[in-house]
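Please complete every field before forwarding. Incomplete forms are returned to the sender.

SECTION A: IDENTIFIERS
Entry label: holo-257
Bound molecule: zinc ion
Molecule representation: SMILES string

SECTION B: INPUTS
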Amino acid sequence: MIEKATTKKISPDELQRYARHIVLRDIGGSGQTKLKNARVLVIGAGGLGTPVLQYLNAAGVGAIKLVDFDKVNISNLQRQVIFDETQVGLSKVESARENLLKQNPYTDISIHDYPLDEANVDSLVGNCDVVVDGTDSFASRKVVNRCCMKNGIPLVFGAISQWEGQVSVFTGKPCYECIFPEEPTGEMARTCSELGVLGSLPGIIGTIMASETIKLITGAGKILERRLLIWDALYGESRTIRTAYRKGCPTCGVETV
Ligand SMILES: [Zn+2]
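SECTION C: PREDICTED COMPLEX
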């Protein structure tokens, strides 16, 4: 039997909670209802994933799925402001859920305490409306990109290193692999733990990723598809570059017709 999808309505208490969205022209009551009925997968409860989680949760996204396998480390607290000292050594997904439910009890948060891989990506991405990738692993990003493009699910991408961050949204051509076809090597492959990262940078990039997710769900504005936003915190500058389909891309270039 096919389960009939029912639209969940906003309760009077939620009307008060989301009042500033409801008066906002491009969201309104209908946009807030779309948020309540949306399902978002957030990959990684790290620097980028945690501000995404906090803002999507506060904004009233109805169902959030979170996958990460790590534990909270003392060195995370410099930028992952969702966690506190009492949670050092504990599971990231459980600690994040505990704090998110304190922030907004109306959200349905499901947690998956294991690494995302090729074997489980389909079930994780499954029936989600948007996927937000907050990982810093090229291999994982590629697997997620392939799954999202195959299923026609929009993918919000972000990356950070030292003082600079990038954001884009992939909805088809071009996809992540068009822009980043090869695994980075040498200096480019070094992680935040080796090169360092400004504490507030993932907050900036993560909240832009959350904003793109809200726009995707509500249909507001113009999303960052076919564009890559680059934010340079050291010089306080940003620029947006056009991105293009890469001929022969193995992910989005194969015609299925
Ligand atoms: Zn592609």
